[in-house]
Design goal:
Largest sheet: 2 strands, antiparallel
Radius of gyration: 33 Å
Distance between the termini: 75 Å
Low-confidence stretches: none
Shape: extended
Length: about 130
């Protein structure tokens, strides 16, 4: 990083001459860096790897992974479970279960106006039975 000292009447200030503003951010008109110079090479390597992988080969690899997991290889067990079952959900807080249930019931309920519109379309005997059941 190149810096130059500018002498002003009010004092001495530091300015950068590498396209950055005084606060360290890119200045106006800075086009940024050249990007990743290896991106094309990595993309080509990735494509070659994908060209080599077939369904049969993936099945062979999966079988090897399963055999290692069954033999007690903890890393293989962990990898197998992560990719088949996924990450376990966090256990619920027992002190908050009632609040969570109430919040879920409120979110899944319909507003009274919508319920009344549905019930108003029922014959009287069905509306009476439904009201008594709830």
């Amino acid at each position: 990083m190149t810096t130059t000292t500018v002498h002003e009447d009010a004092g001495t200030t530091q300015q950068t001459t590498n396209g950055r503003a005084a606060n360290g951010r890119f200045g106006t008109g800075n086009k940024g860096g050249p990007g990743n110079p290896f991106a094309r090479q990595v993309a080509a390597l990735r494509q070659e790897l994908l060209n080599c992988v077939t369904l049969e080969r993936i099945k062979k690899v999966a079988c090897v992974l399963l055999e290692k997991a069954e033999s007690g290889d903890v890393a293989a067990i962990k990898l197998l479970l992560q990719y088949t079952l996924g990450k376990p959900a966090p256990s619920p807080d027992p002190d908050q279960m009632d609040m969570d249930e109430w919040r879920n019931l409120r979110q899944s309920s319909c507003p009274p106006a919508q319920f009344n519109a549905v019930v108003d379309g029922f014959p009287a005997d069905v509306a009476c039975k439904l009201t008594k059941a709830t």
